[in-house]
């Protein structure tokens, strides 16, 4: 099964194939085998040669949300809704300049104020989900136009946390 996702603004594609008790992972020319062990309903251990990682999975409609190494990734099956990533490789489009919760969780900290100018990759909001803190950062420089949450709020997946007006 192939998946597309975005990491730091770059679209990537991986293929997963089950083979016996192992999972074959392919990204571009890189191929490796890993053992995946279920710890609980949404928690897995990813065991590859020389590397072990704890991974949390969640679903929001057709989206698959993966939390690993303190980061959250949104996966879609290859060929489905390519615009889901908010404007592709160049960052968010003007039509979708809002920062949304990647999965249900609790707002730990709002790092900015309305009217504040932010730079690309600046921390905006920290949301705790599935025992992991997710640092949501600006995809592009801009100005915070509206904040919809505050520390302590419980949010659903895809809830708008704040809105940015990108610099042109």
Q: What does this 3D model show about the protein?
A:
With 168 residues, the chain is mostly beta strands. The protein folds into 2 domains: 2-82, Lipocalin (Beta Barrel), CATH 2.40.128; 92-166, OB fold (Dihydrolipoamide Acetyltransferase, E2P) (Beta Barrel), CATH 2.40.50. The chain has no helices and 16 strands. An 8-stranded antiparallel beta barrel has the order 1-2-3-4-5-6-7-8. It has a 4-stranded antiparallel sheet with strand order 9-16-14-11, with no helix packed on it. A hairpin with a 2-residue loop joins strand 2 and strand 3 (22-27).
CATH topology of the largest domain: Lipocalin
Shape: elongated
The structural class is: mainly beta
Q: Beta-strand level of the residues, as a percent range?
A: over 45%
**Strand line-up of the largest beta sheet:** 1-2-3-4-5-6-7-8
